[in-house]
Amino acid sequence: MFGDEINHRGHLRLLRRHMPAQQGLGMTRAQLEPMRDGLGVRSRQAFEGSPAHQAGMQAGDEIIAVDEMNVQNALFHELRLSAAPGVSSTFRVQRADGTHDLTITRVARPG
């Protein structure tokens, strides 16, 4: 799970203390996970009412590109998908019914 997706207040305090570079970044509220051998990205969950959910992201979506940058063969732990609140990105996802472009605008972190 990406550090910017943590929403529990206790975890947020730890994030602010131990990962100051993450402060000021927005979040999509989608829980992402690595695919095969750590390459590629899949959506594990898009939290109800979140920017990712509102854009149409679903559990199991394979993210194949972000802002036209192919991420299929990128190492999951090296991807930097965070950005400031209000910044939108287009996530191209693959699922059983085809390929979809989802525009997700990040929101500010709570607290």
From TrEMBL:
Protein name: PDZ domain-containing protein
Ranges of residues in domain PDZ: 11-73
Family annotation (InterPro entries): PDZ, PDZ_6, PDZ_sf
Domain of life where this protein originates: Bacteria
Pfam families tied to this protein: PDZ_6
Record lineage: Bacteria, Thermotogati, Deinococcota, Deinococci, Deinococcales
